[in-house]
Every structure is written in C-alpha cells, then in structure tokens.
Design a protein that fits this description.
The complex is a heterotrimer of chains A (232), B (220) and C (47). With 232 residues, chain A is mainly α. Helices cover 72% and strands 2% of the residues of chain A. Chain A has 6 helices and 2 strands, in the order H-E-E-H-H-H-H-H. Chain A has a two-stranded parallel ribbon with strand order 1-2. Chain B is mainly alpha-helical and 220 residues long. In chain B, 85% of the residues lie in helices and 0% in strands. Chain B has helices at 2-18, 20-40, 47-65, 68-76, 79-85, 88-117, 126-153, 157-185, 193-219. Chain C is mainly alpha-helical and 47 residues long. Chain C has one domain (2-46). Chain C has helices at 2-7, 9-46. Chains in contact: A-B, A-C. Chains A and B meet through helix 4 and helix 5 of A and helix 7, helix 8 and helix 9 of B.
Chain lengths: 232, 220, 47
C-alpha cells in the first residue's frame, strides 16, 4: 500500500521537475538544468523516453526469466507471467519507438533514418511481434508455453547484440553512439547533478509502475484461466 | 556423436534420392538472381548495394531451404522413431551438420552466380570476406536449425518461419553486410577484428543455447 | 493569470501531463482493488 503512495508522489515529482525545470546556459540555482549543445530544450525527453526504452528491455528480461522458470518447473502460472511481461513490454516498446521518432523529427530532421538505435528498437518490436505470432499459431497450453519460452530465451540471447554492441560499434546520431562528440555520453558528463537525480528518479518511478501493471495483468489472467477451467 | 553422423548420412542419402534441395533450391536461387538482374536492367549499381543484395538472397534462400530439417521428419511421421533411437543432442548435431552442408553449398552457388553476373561484386580483401562467409554461414545454420525445430511443432509452418527467424538473424546479417562493405574497401583482418569477434560470439552463443534448449522442444 | 499561462505554455503541458498521470493512477488503483475482491471471491468458491 505504502509503495503505491510512494509511486504516486515520485511520478508527480518527476513530471513537475522534468517538464518545468528550466534549461539554462549557466546553472546557478538547484533546479537549473545545464544546456547540452546540440540537444537544448529537446534534452528533456530523457526523463520520459529513456525510461520507456528501459522498461521494454526490463520486460523482455522478465519474460525470459519466467520462461526459464517455466522450463524448469513446468508451472503454467509462470508462462502467464512471462506472457504478461511481454505484453506490457510491447506497449512500452511501441511508446519508446513513437516518442523517439517524434523527437528525431525535431532533433535530426526526419522521423526515421535507420540509426543503429532505431534499428535495435525495431528489432525488439519484431521479436515481440514474432513471439505473439508464435503463441497464436500453437494450440495446446503446454506446447504453447514451452515453444514460446524457448523462443523468448533464444531471442533474448541476441538482444545484447542489439542494445549494447551494435549502437556502440556503428556510427549514429543517437546520444551515446560511437562517434558522438558534440552531445557526448550524456549520462556521464553533460548532465549535472540534479538532472541525473531526476533521471534516476524517473527510471525508478517507471520501473515501479511497470511492476504494478504487470502484477495486475498476470493476476487477472490467472483468474481468467482458473474460471475457464471451472466452467469446462 | 556417432548417432549424429548416422543422421547426417541418412539425410544426405535421402537428399541424393529425392534431389529436393538440388532441384528446388537451385531453381529458387536462379529465379531470385534473375529477378534481381531483370529489375536492375541496364542500371549501374554500386558495390555496397551488390554486397547487400548478396545477403538478401542468402537470407531468403536459407528461409526457404533450412526449414525442411524437422518439418520433413514430422511429415513422414518419423519423429517418434528418432526420439526413440537417439539422444536429443545428437539429433540436433546431425540436423545442424546437414544444414551447414546445405547452406555452404547453396551460398557457394549464390556467390559464384553473383561474381559471374555482377561486375561490382569484387573484393579488395577476399580473405576477410571468406572468413565472414564461413563464420556467418555457421551462425545462420545454427539459429535456423533451432527455429526449424520450433516451427515443426507449431501450426502454420510456412509463413511463421521467416517471421521468427528474422529478428534472430538480424544482428548476424547486419554485421555481415558491414563486413562485406569493409572487405570491398580492402580492410585488413586486424582492422575488422571487432566485427569478426561479434560474429564469432554470435555463433558460440547460438550453438550453446540451441543445445541447451533443444531438449525441451524435442521431448514434448 | 491568463497572460502568464500564454507566455509560459510549458505549465499547461505540465497540468495536462499531471492530469493524465492522475487518471492512469486512479484507474490502476481501482483495478487493483477490484481484482483483489475477485481473488477473494474465487478463493471462497474453491473451498
């Protein structure tokens, strides 16, 4: 119960700080954000776009962990949990793609230009899509659970290639790429103390929100399955 | 290991008897390459584009050819017999070796056709391309074998295969295209060692996870 | 008041975002409560 209040307060604070704190050339007071050359006012996206992309990855990690657990214990509830995690991950993945694309229009001049980051989020979308396609193609609960677990584990071992290796060895415009000189590795150097604090707070808030959504999602799915079994 | 080679031998023997791959996949390659040639017409295309097209043809050929590995067993109803006489690991190895052989012969044909028909398909550093070609083909074979195993147990077999395989193969294909460009520019092997290392990691990770997970697919 | 908001449109954005967040929070909260009630009900049915 207390964590719900905590989430409420935290997210409200993040919204207020992230949207209204001014970006100035020379940060003086505690609420000033520094000006990052090449990003300027666009830099505020970091408080809302990065957490969604982060959640898309976390959700995928959760789906994989519960898939492994399913393969070990053969408990159908674990499959439901993995499935719900993937569902919510899909939502956040779409959100990250759309917000990133809108931002790219104003920061880089076009909605989509196959930057390595854009390629990797697109691949993540494809993986989620393939997972749902596979689930709808198999009949039989246990078979579906096994096949989708195996597929999500295999897909997960390729994810590090997308998220961590490719954007860093390939050239790109996204902050944090290999040849990024003007905007630098944003998290480490160009953000000042209070910007970092707000950024991490927003990561925490979004993560809690994700777990709540996931919790509600899988509980309702389990009840639905249980009721269906009683009726049949 | 013995069972794996026996399975490989059996697949090769049935291949020689039916000539499925030689006939249909060979024709598929010819058709795809000629479609590309027709659509290009008299245009001069750049060397980078030829390199990209090469991997596109490789991807679609392996999509249509490699899915047969387990589907053919399901169709002939021999899955149960296989489950009885051999351990899952040796079955995966047998199918994996067969797919490696298949993909190498297919891609050699594609490469020959490309170097014959496209004048821009020239490599300044042929050794780098050969390295990328060998490591890449093993990676394609490893991941498409395990996807083929998943597909053989699922419903709609034909359409689902490229859908499932594409995201898994994407890092491999992208790195391969990058390496092809570099070997066309004449980079030395040590200059592109990062990309080669990524390919190698992909192969190791894929083969290892496929061996671990094949049990679960095969047994139900 | 009106002039202040027309010059600092960012506060309008803030108010809208906060309203959306309150809506999502309220929705999730009530959904959670309802779900808990259903869970208790089904537990009773089983026993």
């Amino acid at each position: 119960m207390a964590w719900k209040v905590f989430l409420f307060v935290l997210m409200t604070l993040v919204c207020i700080a992230g949207i209204t704190f001014p970006i100035v050339r020379e940060p003086v007071t505690w609420y000033d954000f520094p000006l990052i050359p090449g990003l300027e006012e666009n830099a505020k996206i970091i408080f809302f776009h990065v957490p969604t992309a982060w959640l898309a990855t976390i959700a995928f990690l959760m789906a994989t962990l519960y898939s492994i657990k399913y393969l070990r214990k053969k408990d159908l509830d674990d499959d439901v949990k993995a499935y719900t995690a993937a569902q919510i991950g899909m939502i956040f993945c779409v959100l990250a793609t759309v917000t990133g694309s809108v931002w790219a229009k104003f920061a880089w001049g076009s909605f989509w230009n196959w930057d390595p980051r854009e390629t990797s989020i697109f691949a993540l979308l494809l993986i989620y899509g393939a997972l749902f396609a596979l689930r709808s193609a198999v009949d039989g609960d246990e078979k579906r659970a096994t096949l989708s677990s195996v597929y999500s584990i295999i897909a997960f071992v390729t994810v590090p290639f997308f998220i961590f290796i490719m954007p860093r060895i390939m050239k790109g415009l996204h902050p944090g790429s290999a040849d990024d000189t003007n905007a630098g590795p944003v998290v480490d150097f160009k953000m000042n103390q209070n910007m970092q604090v707000v950024f991490y707070l927003s990561l925490i808030a979004f993560t809690i929100l994700y777990f709540w959504m996931w919790n509600v999602g899988y509980r309702s799915q389990i009840i639905k399955d249980k009721l269906q079994k009683q009726i049949n | 290991m013995k069972a794996a080679f026996a399975l490989l031998k059996k697949d090769l023997a049935s291949e020689v008897r039916t000539r499925y791959a030689i006939n249909s996949l060979g024709m598929f390659i010819v058709v795809v390459v000629s479609v590309i040639l027709f659509s290009i017409g008299d245009e001069k295309i750049t060397d980078y584009l030829t390199g990209g097209l090469f991997w596109v043809v490789v991807f679609f050929t392996s999509m249509s050819g490699l899915s047969r590995a387990f589907v053919s067993e399901e169709e002939r109803g021999t899955t149960l017999t296989l489950q009885l006489i051999a351990r899952p690991e040796s079955i995966y190895s047998g199918k994996f070796f067969f797919n490696v052989a298949l993909i190498f012969s297919m891609n050699l044909i594609i490469a020959l056709l490309f170097s014959f028909f496209f004048e821009m398909f020239i490599f300044k550093n042929i050794l780098l391309f050969v390295c990328a070609f060998i490591i890449g083909n093993i990676g394609v074979a490893a991941s498409s074998t395990i996807i083929a195993a998943i597909i053989s147990k699922a419903g709609s077999k034909g359409t689902l295969y490229p859908v499932l395989a594409f995201p898994i193969l994407l890092p491999l294909i992208l790195t391969l295209i990058e390496l092809t460009k570099q070997s066309m520019d004449g980079n030395s092997i040590s200059e592109s060692s990062v990309e080669l290392a990524v390919l190698f990691c992909y192969d190791v990770v894929m083969v290892a996870s496929a061996y671990l997970l094949f049990d679960f697919i095969w047994k139900d | 008041m009106e002039q202040f908001f027309s010059q600092n449109a960012i506060y309008i954005v803030l108010i809208i975002v906060l309203l959306v967040w309150f809506g999502i929070f309220g929705f999730l909260f009530s959904l959670d409560k309802r779900l808990k009630a259903i869970e208790n009900d089904t537990k009773g049915v089983k026993k």
